[in-house]
């Protein structure tokens, strides 16, 4: 019997596998056959083999097609590693290439249209696939992410920044209007104009007399504010203009000043009777009880003031259809109050646009109340008379408030003054 050949676990087979495990020299690699030879003799034998000759004949028929395919595979593998490993960070191109060739089955650069890594990096920059720049440490590359999801996120971020800028511009314009109004009323001091000091003649001597200044100060006595016509009277706390709180900011609680009931009234002021004081106390108590930080009510007309829902709904008027306050929802809200001290459904509602009829669910921070014309019905959505229907009697634009009268109920006919715009809204009446 003949001698049996060595098997898979013979020392020679194990040694061959160990030698072939790592990366070999690039000059002994055949890309067409995808075969790596360990030495020059093995590569020479492979070049003379029939399989290699057949691959060369296929390559000779259409060489451009094979080079383009190898170039595309090499570029895709390089960019995929750059995107996955480094993202959009700026990195040395050679670091990415070393990690790419660590994979044994990678496409070799000598089979592509680029002879060197530098030419490949320059080509990426010209094609707009990466941002490349050259420094003393070599060529650096930065991946440009053109994924639709990434572009969508960037657009959302830009839209949010634009909305914040719109809010800031609106606040700045309001401040400019207040400054202009104060300047018209004469409450803002005019800026002092400084002029250059010029001497009429250089021969004239400049002398200072400090004794005269001291005697002048002694002679001068401060005039009383009533006698001095140029004296500026400091406004009291009650006379200072109050800054109107925006819809997204909570108003600071007002500090109540307790009045002494036994203190005599000022001259010209009518003393309140006990009944008037009791009624005033009840009004304050009712205001404190019914004043909430949520105001959405079914059947009122509101205006959408956010662009997050799209330009289609921006500044469109809608009707509050539902505030999601079913029986089970009320039970759930009570459980949230007990365990989490947080309620969400009180601040959201389902609205229906008047012109298009679209239904959307929004937060109250994205809505504002609508003030109708005089004589129209409104709903009081916050304050002492929360929930009452009223008739709009008059509007005071300078004070940002209005006067209403109760339309129905036991308090019908009662006139309420100084009602803020945020506390009332138009009642929807289908035509």
Automatic annotation (TrEMBL):
<dbReference type="InterPro" id="IPR019447">
    <property type="entry name" value="DNA/RNA-bd_Kin17_WH-like_dom"/>
</dbReference>
<dbReference type="GO" id="GO:0005634">
    <property type="term" value="C:nucleus"/>
</dbReference>
<dbReference type="InterPro" id="IPR041330">
    <property type="entry name" value="KN17_SH3"/>
</dbReference>
<dbReference type="InterPro" id="IPR037321">
    <property type="entry name" value="KIN17-like"/>
</dbReference>
<dbReference type="InterPro" id="IPR038254">
    <property type="entry name" value="KIN17_WH-like_sf"/>
</dbReference>
<keyword id="KW-0175">Coiled coil</keyword>
<comment type="similarity">
    <text>Belongs to the KIN17 family.</text>
</comment>
<feature type="region of interest" description="Disordered">
    <location>
        <begin position="217"/>
        <end position="274"/>
    </location>
</feature>
<protein>
    <recommendedName>
        <fullName>DNA/RNA-binding protein Kin17 WH-like domain-containing protein</fullName>
    </recommendedName>
</protein>
<feature type="compositionally biased region" description="Basic and acidic residues">
    <location>
        <begin position="234"/>
        <end position="274"/>
    </location>
</feature>
<dbReference type="GO" id="GO:0008270">
    <property type="term" value="F:zinc ion binding"/>
</dbReference>
<dbReference type="Pfam" id="PF25092">
    <property type="entry name" value="SH3_KIN17_C"/>
</dbReference>
<dbReference type="Pfam" id="PF25095">
    <property type="entry name" value="C2H2-zf_KIN17"/>
</dbReference>
<dbReference type="InterPro" id="IPR036236">
    <property type="entry name" value="Znf_C2H2_sf"/>
</dbReference>
<dbReference type="Pfam" id="PF10357">
    <property type="entry name" value="WH_KIN17"/>
</dbReference>
<dbReference type="GO" id="GO:0003690">
    <property type="term" value="F:double-stranded DNA binding"/>
</dbReference>
<dbReference type="InterPro" id="IPR014722">
    <property type="entry name" value="Rib_uL2_dom2"/>
</dbReference>
<keyword id="KW-0479">Metal-binding</keyword>
<dbReference type="GO" id="GO:0006974">
    <property type="term" value="P:DNA damage response"/>
</dbReference>
<keyword id="KW-0862">Zinc</keyword>
<keyword id="KW-0863">Zinc-finger</keyword>
<dbReference type="Pfam" id="PF18131">
    <property type="entry name" value="KN17_SH3"/>
</dbReference>
<feature type="coiled-coil region">
    <location>
        <begin position="151"/>
        <end position="185"/>
    </location>
</feature>
<dbReference type="InterPro" id="IPR041995">
    <property type="entry name" value="KOW_KIN17"/>
</dbReference>
<feature type="domain" description="DNA/RNA-binding protein Kin17 WH-like">
    <location>
        <begin position="54"/>
        <end position="180"/>
    </location>
</feature>
<dbReference type="GO" id="GO:0006260">
    <property type="term" value="P:DNA replication"/>
</dbReference>
<dbReference type="InterPro" id="IPR056767">
    <property type="entry name" value="C2H2-Znf_KIN17"/>
</dbReference>
């Amino acid at each position: 019997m003949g001698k049996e050949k060595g098997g898979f676990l013979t020392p020679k087979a194990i040694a061959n596998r160990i030698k072939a495990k790592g990366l070999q020299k690039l000059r002994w690699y055949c890309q067409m056959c995808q075969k790596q030879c360990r030495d020059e003799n093995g590569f020479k034998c492979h070049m003379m083999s029939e399989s290699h000759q057949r691959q060369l004949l296929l390559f000779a028929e259409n060489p451009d097609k094979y080079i383009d395919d190898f170039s595309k595979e090499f570029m895709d593998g390089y960019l995929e590693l750059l995107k996955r490993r480094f993202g959009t960070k700026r990195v040395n191109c050679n670091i990415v290439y070393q990690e790419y060739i660590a994979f044994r089955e990678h496409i070799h650069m000598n089979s592509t249209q680029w002879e060197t890594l530098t030419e490949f990096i320059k080509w990426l920059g010209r094609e707009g696939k990466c941002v490349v720049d050259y420094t003393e440490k070599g060529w650096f590359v930065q991946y440009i992410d053109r994924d639709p999801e990434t572009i969508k996120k960037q657009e959302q971020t830009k839209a949010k920044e634009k909305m914040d800028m719109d809010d800031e511009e609106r606040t700045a314009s309001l401040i400019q209007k207040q400054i202009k109004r104060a300047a018209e009323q004469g409450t803002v001091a005019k800026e002092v104009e400084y002029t250059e000091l010029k001497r009429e003649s250089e021969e004239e001597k400049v002398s200072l007399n400090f004794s005269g200044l001291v005697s002048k100060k002694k002679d001068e006595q401060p005039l009383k504010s009533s006698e001095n016509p140029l004296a500026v009277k400091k406004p009291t706390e009650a006379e200072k203009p109050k800054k109107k709180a925006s819809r997204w900011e909570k108003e600071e609680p007002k500090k109540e000043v307790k009045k002494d009931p036994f203190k005599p009234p000022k001259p010209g002021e009518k003393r309140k009777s006990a009944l008037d004081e009791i009624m005033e106390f009840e009004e304050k108590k009712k205001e404190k009880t019914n004043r909430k930080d949520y105001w959405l009510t079914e059947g009122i007309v509101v205006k959408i003031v956010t662009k997050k829902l799209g330009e289609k709904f921006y500044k469109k008027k809608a009707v509050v259809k539902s505030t999601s306050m079913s029986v089970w929802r009320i039970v759930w809200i009570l459980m949230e109050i007990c365990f989490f001290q947080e309620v969400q459904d009180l601040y959201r509602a389902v609205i229906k646009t008047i012109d298009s009829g679209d239904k959307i669910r929004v937060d109250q921070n994205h809505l504002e109340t609508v003030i109708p014309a005089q004589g129209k019905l409104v709903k009081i959505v916050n304050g002492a008379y929360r929930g009452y229907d009223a008739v709009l009697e008059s509007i005071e634009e300078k004070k940002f408030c209005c006067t209403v009268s109760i339309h129905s109920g036991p308090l019908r006919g009662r006139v309420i003054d100084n009602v803020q715009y945020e506390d009332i809204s138009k009642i929807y009446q289908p035509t």
